[in-house]
Design goal:
The structure holds two protein chains of two kinds. By secondary structure, chain A is α+β, with helices and mostly antiparallel strands. Chain A has helices spanning about 10-25, 85-90, 165-170, 235-250, 305-310, 340-350, 370, 420-425, and strands at about 1-10, 30-35, 40-45, 50-55, 65, 80-85, 105-115, 120-130, 135-140, 160-165, 180-185, 190-195, 200, 205, 210-215, 225, 230-235, 250-255, 265-270, 275-280, 295-300, 385-390, 400-405. Chain A has a ten-stranded antiparallel beta sheet. In chain A, strands 5-1-7-8-9 form a five-stranded antiparallel beta sheet. Chain A has a four-stranded antiparallel beta sheet with strand order 15-12-11-17. The longest helix of chain A has 15 residues, at about 10-25. Chain B has two domains: about 10-100 and about 140-165, Proliferating Cell Nuclear Antigen (Box), CATH 3.70.10.10; about 185-330, Proliferating Cell Nuclear Antigen, CATH 3.70.10.10. The chains are: A alpha+beta, B alpha+beta. At the A-B interface, α2 and β9 of A face α5, β13 and α8 of B. β9 (about 135-140) of chain A pairs antiparallel with β13 of chain B, so a sheet runs across the interface. Chain B: Its EC number is 3.1.11.2.
Chain lengths: ~450, ~325
């Protein structure tokens, strides 16, 4: 008796292949989570700074979908992990069949045999091809809890929405060796700057600095609303993988973010797939907003909306032991910076973070190698914005392991951390990110 | 007719070096090939440690000229005939020679812009009515062999350039063919080679060491399975006339082969049109590929070449066979 069985049409099978290719850019294994209302295929990268999730809708994505948990340990969901390579070899190359080979697949049946009393627990994929060719694969899987990152869109006031086709054209220009991508909204434009810092080992240059800036007018966006002069830095590789996949689906890509060092989410939806990518950002938040109390907003939205969103109560209060406001658009005043050590302390005290791994989540603490090419002011970032694990292996339906964005919920005090900067400072950054200028500045 | 002592023992002219190349490429997994010349055909054979044998027969008909002079025409009784000349040559060297001029796919320009360009560069005069391409004389290839101890001489000409290569011949090793009993066949089926190539490519992704062939008069009629560290894969063929042109299997039969040996035939599978897959009761697998090659002559149509593979089964793996059957029975549930 299969715990999960579903059937895919030929097109959906090709889409599974596409999403697996995209997930392969994030990590070498993928996690499956089956529920009654969705099948989620996710991947988390090894440094836990990027999380990709594809939620497949049982009604629209599948021909048939049946999830029947059974047994005393039935929990309403089934999770497992597989090697992406194994799945890719099963779903591989179906696209090639478009050239008229007559064993093109008709449909694909997948079932998971999961019986504790049997030795053979396998993920069984049956490709039913024309002329009665059947290809059956039995893949081993690892039963394990799946981590999900949660992202609170309500606390991410900045965002934009654009056709993936437009972005797909532009990502070609990012140098293949660049690592980071800086997003900056300025003067009615958004500037994507892909860059890599110079890495020296003694006198030997390991990495040459390289920078490519692309400025796009916000009129090109279907919607644009973001704080001006704020640098948000993500990984070029992740961005490319996301845009490439979005373009295959011909979907419009949405981005939601709040501030550097807070997670950013890209999402799009098509053909019964909801694709969400939660990426940790770094960057410099010492732009204009440090001088002026209210950040300027670059927006395509109506003016009335814009003014209503602009925070009227400037956070001029002296940094004291107070809870942070729920909406943080302007709270980064000069003194309100926290050190990394504060951050980790706070993480330990946070009640939702039971796992000891929480420090590594989305926050490569004390990893000097990582920080060589990181943008400046890493140590001055606002510290309370951390993603935490919620790995309390509670098997009830309502709670399940998540990576939770605790940023705006953690009720922790503000402390003045400037004096402790030296504790955690790795290498001095070589250049301020605000000194970067795009070609069209 | 007595043998003309000045004339070579064997000469053959082909109008397309490419077709010879395409056929011989199918068996290019070994470094030395045995060549046996007979009045009807020339046979190239390669083998791997007596467990895998492959032959290419170049029949008289695919050559424009084929002459074989021997003394046997005087003898009426075939048993009096001396054994046909046999020698060994280096197969990679032969393949290199045959593609000296075939930079790109001249006859069938592919979508690759480089190939198209190369073809264009080579055929700049192609629009002229008397160019060699139009006359079908491009890639003219003449093979000749004078007799034991002499080199195999290959004369190629194309677009006014000609090359003569003499390939050293070696003494044949005494080797006996893998016996295949045509009178006691356990399985005989003919199918499109792409189906088999597709199945082998699917199974290869699991990186397996053995391939299990299962044939039975009931469903599943023909199945190929392999397992690797990450899981197992099975490809089943139903008895659909679109799929299996012929299918003769008197009783259930299962046998394992080394996957690496089967993969040696992958190139042949890729270029062949049809394949006849047979096993005898000893389990020896015979794969005979029918390959259509263009003769290069306008109006001459397509020539047909045969490439044969014989693979010795793995023995003493009773357990494996049982495993395969057990897995199979769970499938039926």
């Amino acid at each position: 008796m299969a715990i999960l069985s579903f059937s895919l049409s030929a097109e959906a099978t090709a889409r599974v292949h596409d999403l697996l290719l995209c997930l392969a850019k994030f990590g070498e294994s993928v996690c499956l989570e089956a529920r009654n209302d969705k099948l989620a295929i996710t991947a988390l990268n090894s440094s836990r700074t990027a999380y990709a999730s594809f939620s497949l809708d049982p009604q629209t994505f599948f021909l048939e979908y049946e999830f029947s948990p059974h047994g005393p340990t039935a929990t309403g969901r089934f999770t497992c992990q597989l090697y992406n390579k194994a799945l890719l070899s099963v779903f591989k190359g179906r696209v090639v069949d478009a050239r008229g080979r007559d064993t093109a697949i008709d449909r694909c049946d997948v079932s998971i045999e999961d019986q504790p009393d049997k030795t053979e627990c396998r993920l069984v994929v049956k490709m039913i091809c024309r002329h009665g060719v059947t290809k059956t694969y039995k893949l081993t899987y690892e039963s394990m809890e799946v981590m999900h990152a949660l992202f609170d869109k309500a606390s991410a006031p900045n965002g934009w929405h654009i056709s993936s086709r437009v972005l797909r054209e532009y990502i070609e220009y990012f140098g293949p060796k660049t690592e980071q991508l800086d997003l900056l909204a300025k003067d009615g434009k958004i500037i994507f700057t892909s860059f890599t810092g110079k890495v020296m080992d003694g006198k030997e240059i390991l990495k040459q600095p390289l920078e490519t800036a692309i400025a796009m007018h916000i009129e090109d966006f279907e919607d644009f609303h973001a704080e001006e002069d704020m640098h948000v830095v993500i990984s070029v590789k992740d961005f490319k993988a996301i845009v490439t996949h979005a373009e295959i689906l011909k979907a419009s890509l949405s981005a939601h973010y709040s501030r550097p060092s807070r997670p950013l989410q890209f999402s799009y939806q098509a053909h019964g797939m909801l694709c969400e990518f939660t990426l940790m950002t770094s960057g410099d938040y010492q732009g204009v907003s440090t001088q002026s109390t209210a950040p300027r907003i670059v927006s395509t939205r109506a003016t009335s909306r814009q003014t209503s969103r602009a925070p009227s109560q400037a956070m001029n209060t002296k940094p004291t032991e107070m809870a942070p406001p729920a909406r943080p658009p302007s709270k980064s005043l000069l003194g309100q910076r926290r050190t990394l050590s504060d951050m980790s302390q706070q993480q330990h005290s946070a009640p939702t973070q039971a796992s000891p791994e929480s420090e590594s989540l989305f926050m490569p603490l004390g990893d000097d190698e990582e920080r060589h090419w990181d943008p400046p002011d890493y140590d001055k970032e606002d510290g309370e914005e951390v993603l935490g694990w919620d790995a309390s292996a509670d098997n009830s339906l309502s709670t399940y392991p998540t990576l939770r964005d605790t940023g705006s919920h953690a009720a922790s005090g503000w402390t003045q951390g400037r004096s402790r900067d030296s504790n955690t400072q790795g290498l001095e950054p070589t250049q301020r990110l605000s000194q970067f200028h795009g070609l069209f500045d | 007719m007595a043998r003309d002592l000045n004339a070579p023992l064997f000469t053959a002219v082909s109008s397309s070096a490419r077709q010879l190349f395409l056929l011989l490429r199918c068996i290019s997994f070994a470094s030395k090939a045995h060549v046996r010349v007979s009045p009807e055909n020339i046979r190239f054979s390669v083998e791997e440690t007596s467990v895998l044998e492959a032959f290419v027969f170049l029949s008289k008909s695919i050559f424009t000229t084929y002459t074989y002079q021997d003394d046997t025409s005087e003898h009426d009784l075939p048993e009096d005939a001396p054994p046909p000349p046999t020698f060994q040559i280096s197969l990679p060297a032969l393949l290199e020679t045959l593609q000296i001029f075939t930079l790109g796919d001249l006859s069938k320009p592919s979508g690759d812009p480089y190939d198209t360009f190369a073809a264009h560069r080579l055929n700049r005069q192609a629009n002229q009515p008397f160019s060699s391409t139009v006359l079908g004389t491009s890639g003219l290839c003449r093979l000749s062999y004078d007799g034991p101890g002499c080199p195999l001489s290959i004369h190629l000409s194309e677009a006014g350039v000609s090359t003569t290569c003499d390939l050293t011949t070696y003494e044949p090793e005494s080797s006996s063919d893998i016996p295949f009993d045509r009178d006691a066949m356990a399985l005989k089926t003919i199918m499109r080679a792409t189906h088999l190539a597709d199945a082998i490519a699917e199974l290869a992704s699991a990186n397996p060491t053995t391939l299990t062939l299962l044939a039975s008069p009931r469903a599943p009629f023909l199945s190929l399975s392999a397992s690797g560290p990450l899981g197992s894969a099975t490809v089943e063929f139903a008895r659909d006339p679109q799929l299996l042109e012929t299918f003769q299997c008197p009783q259930r039969f299962s046998q394992s082969y080394s996957f690496a040996l089967v993969k040696a035939a992958q190139r042949a599978m890729g270029s062949a049109n049809k394949v006849s897959l047979r096993t005898d009761e000893q389990g020896v697998l015979s794969l005979q590929f029918l390959i259509e090659v263009e003769t290069g002559q306008a109006g001459a149509g397509e020539g047909i070449g045969f490439v044969d593979f014989r693979i010795v089964p793995l023995v003493g793996d009773e357990n494996d066979t049982e495993d395969g059957e057990r897995a199979d029975s769970t499938d039926d549930d």
